[in-house]
Amino acid sequence: MPRALITGITGQDGSYLAEFLLAKGYEVHGIIRRASTFNTHRIDHIYIDPHESNAKMLLHYGDLSDPGLLTELIYNIIPDEIYHLGAQSHVRVSFDMPEFTGNITGLGTTRILDAMRRSGIKSRFYQASSSEMFGSALPPQSETTIFQPQSPYAAAKLYAYWLTVNYREAYNLYACNGILFNHESPRRGEIFVTRKITRAVSNILSGKQHKLFMGNLDAKRDWGFAPEYVEMMYLMLQQETADDYVVGTSESYSVREFINTAFLYAGVEIEWLGEGIQTQGIVKSTSEKWNDRLQIGQVLVEIDPRYFRPTEVDYLKADISKARQKLGWEPRITFDELVNVMMDYDLLQVGITPPSKGINAVVAKGFGWTNHEFANAQALKNDIG
Ligand code: NAP
Ligand code: G4F
Fold it and tell me: What pTM did the predictor assign?
């Protein structure tokens, strides 16, 4: 039975990857941080008590700041594959905590690679590199684009990227960089922009929130569906030789377009007034359902400069030619389907029956294994089976 070790197993990607590898028959080991409250909600549904003979997911306490422990874990587990996803992953926060971000997001990778080198264990290694490393480089960005990082997070990821390349060349390790563009899902952390928007739309429609306060509306991102992207992580480690790959959709949309699409799916048309920090998103029209809750002209979106970044990444759009050619990568979930599935989930959380077009689309395209998010939703049970 193949054995994998995942750092960051409690995160968005770690949870999907764990599910994916368990379904492939792997024994999955994950490193989790001790917290004063439970932080395992994304993996609770796949957890089986280790005393049971069918328990294939085993969790170990650890931290990326602790090299001795990482070495011990790798030495004892002897994983065939290591997926290094753990990081301080928020770009805005990295400006507030630059040194911490360097320590965890940058040096964390060194600690794992060096644990592999010192223990002599020949695991295959995946580094969660990021399109954020391209920074101000013009789109479309590919494996050969020159990196121009614009944040402490991007600089830390770039250091980790080069360490991965260096250990591959210096010590002949099977080590890959997946340079992944933004990928989202109902499990996305609540302070990343997509989830902030889908939660806010749902909260506004249920009367729990009055307005959505935003930063830069004009930044453009190449947004894909996270469960698809973890399949690519796995594929990168199954090749004959280790290499680095860009993974994205090759389509790009602005934050403003994301907001429009999310509101519209729920039955609210947004019109934009003003410019810069005076920009406002108001209700242009609504479906009948919201007549008693929203008024035409009501302000739903405003700008709060607190959410601006000291330096911004304006435009990310992937050139996926290499992954397409060598890994057979073809993104399956469209931008609209992604927004829809996130909206379906967040509407359910506030007790609103969602249109369900999103969940039906992802199930129809073979992502039935993401269904647990919707398992308690009576309204959807008949649809998703
Ligand atoms: P995420 O949801 O923020 O998850 C980050 C994970 O890292 C969590 O499990 C977190 O644990 C863990 N972690 C943080 N600090 C740690 C530490 N000191 N020691 C051990 N574990 C620690 O991130 P994600 O969206 O799943 O992304 C996964 C990886 O891909 C990250 O490295 C991210 O930078 C990178 N990436 C993400 C995207 C994207 O669009 N999602 C794109 C490119 C690259 P807790 O749960 O305890 O906080
Ligand atoms: O959702 P975001 O915070 O993601 P960002 O900065 O692109 O980083 C994410 O993707 C990277 C891959 O490129 C990952 F490496 C990284 O770990 C993370 O997953 O912000 C997206 C855009 C930015 O331009 C930001 O300025 O949305 C803009 N934005 C506008 N208002 C906002 C907000 N972002 C957040 N988080 N909150 C706002 O209110």
Answer: 0.97
